[in-house]
């Protein structure tokens, strides 16, 4: 057990999370509904766009902005094509999250960096959930990508707060 203020031993795994979904329980029950001004605030800091995945055929459908940010020429792709532009050391973790979510209805999130062909680096956050995975070869995933409104220069890194 860590004490308050202690740095966890492996900062890289903090941003890869999965949890079992309880579809009978409302998401974040008891919290106030978001107001338009909060959406305006969110859009001030990031671009967000939804995506859906069909587990029967493995196709992920992205919005046009997400496809461009992932360096894809089509809004439909497979998981490996989607992840091709992610940091190499994050791909295995992200693949594991998607594999777990494909086998059991769950919620998940991850954060990584998109490596653009220009050399710039774009942070991306993903939050999603899988549903209907209890039947073999069925189910779907739905989620949102959030792209902060800044890019990192080639070779630069986001630093962890110590």
Describe how the helices and strands are arranged.
Elements: E1 17-20, H1 36-45, E2 46-54, E3 59-62, H2 64-69, E4 76-77, H3 79-83, H4 88-103, E5 106-115, E6 121-131, E7 140-148
What labels would you give this structure?
single chain; disordered N terminus; Beta-Lactamase; 7-stranded antiparallel beta sheet; disordered C terminus; 4 helices; alpha+beta; 162 residues
Structure description:
Strand 6 and strand 7 form a beta hairpin. The chain has a domain of 103 residues: PAS domain (Beta-Lactamase, 2-Layer Sandwich). It is built from four helices and seven strands; from the N terminus they run E-H-E-E-H-E-H-H-E-E-E. Strands 1-5-6-7-2-3-4 form a seven-stranded antiparallel beta sheet. Helix content is 23%, strand content 30%. The chain has 162 residues and is an alpha+beta fold.
DSSP summary, beta strand count: 7
What's the helical proportion of residues?
10-25%
> How do the strands of the widest beta sheet line up side by side?
1-5-6-7-2-3-4
- Biggest sheet descriptor: 7 strands, antiparallel
CATH superfamily of the domain at 46-148, called what? Answer: PAS domain
CATH architectural designation of the domain at 46-148: 2-Layer Sandwich
Number of helices: 4
Which percent band covers the strand fraction? 25-35%
Mean pLDDT: 78
Per the CATH scheme, the topology name of the domain at 46-148 is: Beta-Lactamase
For the terminal residues, how far apart are their CA atoms? 18 Å
Helix and strand succession? EHEEHEHHEEE
- pLDDT < 50 runs, ≥5 residues: 1-14, 21-31, 158-162
The gyration radius over C-alpha positions equals 17 Å
């Amino acid at each position: 057990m860590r004490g308050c203020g202690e740095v966890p031993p492996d900062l890289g795994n903090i941003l890869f999370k999965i949890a079992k979904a309880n579809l009978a329980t409302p998401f974040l029950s008891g919290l106030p509904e978001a107001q338009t001004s909060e959406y305006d605030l969110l859009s001030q800091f990031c671009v967000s766009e939804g995506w859906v995945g069909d587990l029967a055929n493995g196709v992920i459908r992205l919005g046009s902005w997400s496809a461009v940010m992932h360096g894809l020429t089509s809004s439909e792709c497979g998981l490996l094509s989607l992840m091709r532009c992610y940091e190499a050391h994050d791909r295995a973790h992200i693949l594991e999250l998607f594999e777990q979510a494909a086998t059991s209805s769950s919620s998940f999130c991850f954060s990584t960096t998109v490596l653009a062909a220009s050399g710039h680096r774009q942070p991306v956050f993903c939050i999603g959930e899988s549903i209907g995975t209890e039947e073999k070869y069925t189910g779907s995933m739905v989620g949102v990508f959030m792209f902060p409104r800044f890019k990192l220069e080639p070779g630069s890194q986001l630093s962890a707060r110590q």
